[in-house]
């Protein structure tokens, strides 16, 4: 019997490829055994609602078509449901960091073929207060600045690279006093930026969280301590090579739960979207959602420790 899939797509995402390709995508899914109905999102929060309804209606699969923003909403729509259909990803957005971390092809035909192969793996999901993320969360004055630049450059780490180029923004960075607490340690520091990562590939920084595995139940936490402009630029260039964790201004550790507080106003960035403010408790929900992945691309999924 054919499986029932719900295709949730952002018609404005990326180069608006979904508008052109929808009939062909539906045909391909049908041939591959997925009877698919569609929901075109109309604005912010709509993919979340659509995914929540799809879980309640017990679809066998939810396909998130668009950028990281659409996937983020789909994850948030199903994360609290007792029945969570697996997610297939059609990465047709401007930024698809998570799909890249999973080696999901950007070509729509290849991505459809992957979906119909229907090889799923459980992936950890991060819970922050009452919201969820699947790739990376972060905060600090640097991540606040990311909302001031054009949406095409929205992803936090993409912005980091952007800032390295656009040096005029850098003098505005300021350290913020924060407390980070977990079972393993307690830190009180002036912090430029903290990142709580689930995958090891974020934006242009493929080696940012080197030990990150998508289903080990652990976050990889990176904290950039107070530093000056020259030190910051040095660390950003080290981060491109995965060498930043050797720098004394960088703390790197793994934990399954983390509490971060500050007397300052600190916004949170969850998978590139605004996600509330500190204080926050980050909890790793191990293997919480099944995602369709490429069997041959599992090296990123299983991550080989050095
Ligand atoms: N029909 C719509 N019109 C305008 N905005 C929409 C529509 N549907 C969804 N959105 C919004 O677009 C946001 C970004 O979408 P998404 O990440 O899928 O695409 P993107 O092309 O990667 O995004 P961006 O161009 O903003 O980087 C979503 O978080 C959602 O709030």
From TrEMBL:
Co-factor requirement: Mg(2+)
UniProt keyword list: ATP-binding, Kinase, Lipid biosynthesis, Lipid metabolism, Magnesium, Metal-binding, Nucleotide-binding, Phospholipid biosynthesis, Phospholipid metabolism, Transferase
Keyword hit for NADP: no
Coiled coil: none
UniProt KW Thylakoid keyword: no
Pfam family, one: YegS_C
GO CC annotation terms, alphabetical: plasma membrane
GO molecular function terms listed in the Swiss-Prot or TrEMBL record: ATP binding; ATP-dependent diacylglycerol kinase activity; metal ion binding
Lineage: superkingdom: Bacteria
PROSITE patterns per record: DAGK
GO process annotations (BP): phospholipid biosynthetic process
Residue span(s) of domain DAGKc: 1-132
Family, as annotated: Belongs to the diacylglycerol/lipid kinase family.
Protein name: Diacylglycerol kinase
Species name: Paenibacillus lutrae
């Amino acid at each position: 019997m054919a499986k029932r899939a719900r295709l949730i797509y952002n018609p404005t995402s990326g180069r608006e490829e979904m508008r052109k390709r929808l009939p062909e995508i539906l045909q391909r899914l049908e041939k591959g055994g997925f009877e698919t109905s569609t929901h075109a999102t109309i604005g912010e929060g709509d993919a979340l609602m659509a995914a929540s309804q799809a879980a309640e209606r017990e679809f066998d699969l939810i396909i998130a078509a668009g950028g990281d923003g659409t996937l983020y909403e789909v994850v948030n729509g199903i994360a609290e449901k007792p029945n969570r259909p697996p997610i297939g990803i059609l990465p047709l957005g401007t930024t698809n960091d998570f799909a890249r971390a999973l080696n999901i092809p950007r070509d729509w035909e290849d991505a459809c073929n992957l979906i119909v192969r229907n090889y799923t793996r459980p992936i950890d999901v991060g819970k922050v207060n009452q919201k969820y993320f699947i790739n990376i969360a972060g905060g600090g004055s640097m991540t606040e600045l990311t909302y001031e630049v054009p949406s095409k450059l929205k992803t936090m780490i993409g912005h980091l690279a952007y800032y390295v180029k656009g040096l005029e923004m850098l003098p505005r960075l300021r350290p913020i006093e924060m407390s980070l607490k977990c079972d393993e340690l307690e830190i009180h520091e002036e912090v430029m930026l903290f990142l709580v990562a689930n995958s090891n590939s974020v934006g242009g920084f493929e080696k940012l969280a080197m030990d990150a595995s998508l289903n080990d139940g652990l976050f990889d936490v990176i904290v950039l301590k107070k530093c000056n402009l020259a030190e910051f630029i040095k660390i950003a260039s080290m981060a491109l090579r995965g060498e930043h964790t050797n720098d004394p201004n960088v703390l790197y550790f793994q934990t399954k739960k983390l509490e971060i507080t500050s007397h300052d106003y600190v916004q949170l960035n969850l998978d590139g979207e605004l996600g509330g403010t500190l204080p926050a408790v980050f909890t790793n929900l191990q293997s919480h959602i099944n995602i369709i992945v490429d069997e041959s691309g599992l090296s990123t999924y299983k991550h080989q420790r050095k």
